[in-house]
Amino acid sequence: MKQRSTPITHHTVPVVTIDGPSGSGKGTIGQLLAKQLGWHFLDSGAMYRIAGLAATLKGVDLSQDASVAEVARAMRVQFVPAGPGEPVRVVLDGHDVGDELRTEEGGRRASLVAALPGVREALLEKQRAFRQAPGLVADGRDMGTTVFPDAILKIYLTASAELRAERRYKQLKEKGFDANLPRLLDEIRERDQRDAERTASPLKPAPDASILDSSPLSISEVVDRIAALLQTRRADCSW
Ligand code: DC
Prior knowledge:
The protein is an alpha/beta fold.
């Protein structure tokens, strides 16, 4: 596959990948784990959301792989750490775009551009650049399969579509956005299907991933389980 041919650099820096469908809790769990370890964090979904937004702002048709890929390659993205308890600020070409990314429309655009092989290729190096000492926790769909195939630990986090829709509903309400539960459930199912059926990096566990169902667990229980798995892996490895 084209993406796999890109050389992997900085391979001495350990990576934990957390892949899975939207709403499985990957983002929250990945950030908590990164904080606990003192490692960097990559929200790769944000990269696709930003690419979708950047292309839209430039009036590019989101079905045109080469044009969206060109925008994705050229865009300048910064994740600026904010104060304690505040979300990281996302800056695209000098403008704060955080609010526009997390809307349902932002998710829809991301899912469209994520199906384009040229866009995935364009974002590959940008994602690998996050691999910095002392380590990286990378959250997404293909972190363990394509972007960091040599990760020290690969987690595939799942949860039922109903539970994920409920979580998303609560999140949106808390942020003061309008939300409709049945519609969110439909959108989640649609997006899962599109992410799983696309030919470029479909959503599926890496063969060597540990599969974790977060449905019966609290966030801190999931973080603890991953931290315990990492301890075991570290004991097995030379670092
Ligand atoms: O995790 P998220 O909801 O922010 O992701 C937005 C979209 O981007 C979603 O449709 C899946 C896609 N995506 C992807 O294809 N590969 C990734 N590594 C991360 C996200």
